[in-house]
Specification:
This protein is mostly helical and 136 residues long. It contains four helices and no strands.
């Protein structure tokens, strides 16, 4: 008696397996793209009350940067949720890549604005031991 072993899975199972492999490859590619472009967002210096009172423009700038960070974080989380499993070559993949590029550009601009704020805040006396009191 001879036994036959089927080495070919049904066509539908092969398509599903191919899709899973493609999704895994895409995830790895998107992850690699994101990690190679990973940027460190500098912490925003807190403003002591005396500095904030003397420089209200800095207090407004800091508040705007905090709000912008929250929006960038939400966009990033939304992107990750929507693009975690897209098919290679699909319209969704193209959309995800475009959104990732825009997100990275906006993040780079935010980082630059944060550095400029920190520099101005240091010049105004924030972040030094000579500025006691409550902070904003």
């Amino acid at each position: 008696m001879t036994h036959r072993i089927a080495i070919f899975a049904p066509a539908r199972a092969m398509q599903t397996a191919r899709r899973l492999v493609c999704a895994a490859v895409l995830m790895a590619a998107l992850g690699a793209a994101a990690s190679t472009q990973a940027q460190v967002i500098p912490a925003l210096l807190p403003l002591p009350d005396a500095v904030a009172s003397a420089h209200p423009d800095l207090a407004r700038q800091r508040a705007a940067l905090v709000e912008e960070r929250n929006k960038l974080r939400a966009r990033s989380q939304q992107h990750n949720a929507q693009c975690s499993a897209v098919e290679e070559g699909s319209a969704a993949e193209a959309s995800c890549r475009a959104e990732l590029a825009a997100l990275n550009a906006d993040l780079g601009a935010h980082i630059q604005k944060s550095k400029e704020y920190n520099s101005a805040a240091r010049k105004a006396g924030a972040g030094s031991e000579q500025a006691p009191g409550p902070q904003r």
